[in-house]
Amino acid sequence: MKTPIRILGIAGSLRRGSYNRAALRAATELVPEGAILETFELDGIPVFNQDEDRNPPATVAELKRRIREADAILFVTPEYNYSVPGVLKNAIDWASRPYGDSAWNGKPAAIMGASPGTLGTARAQYHLRQILVFLNMLPINQPEVMIGNAAARFDHEGNLTDETTKDFIRQLLQHLVEWTRRLGPP
Ligand SMILES: Cc1cc2nc3c(=O)[nH]c(=O)nc-3n(C[C@H](O)[C@H](O)[C@H](O)COP(=O)(O)O)c2cc1C
Description:
alpha/beta
């Protein structure tokens, strides 16, 4: 039997009723056989200060440890003003430092996101892809999971009810697992 692929899922919202946290929760139920999807919550990560990057707060050290433990990363990003929310960028920045000690380096990744708008975080996702270039991460290209009209796809308890969206998330995770196996150990 193959060793399971460990995916770490990170949603870029702290909001109680967050669609993106709900989408990540849904993803944990849609993960293919042979993989495990665990999550990391970003509340408790302070605002980045480069003076502290060699001696980071405990939550940041924990984030870096969890990223390093994972074989692959799943980013679930909201879109704020056509880009990635500060809360996600802040966590990305912390875990990328100090220079030469980035936890992201060489990690396979997948991206998805949810928005009440029609474009379903498309613009934020392309900004995130640009960030991943500098982080030297290895994102899969497809499927692009852009969950638009989120209010119609989740119920009031934050359960994903839309079957088409579930299929896209299943495919995304399946491709991420195949891609991670293809790349092999770092
Ligand atoms: C500061 C701010 C900027 C936003 N900008 C966008 C945007 O550019 N595009 C978009 O589709 N939605 C935008 N929204 C709406 C978010 O998509 C919506 O609040 C969404 O629910 C946030 O994700 P969450 O539910 O995971 O917290 C913005 C919301 C905020 C608070």
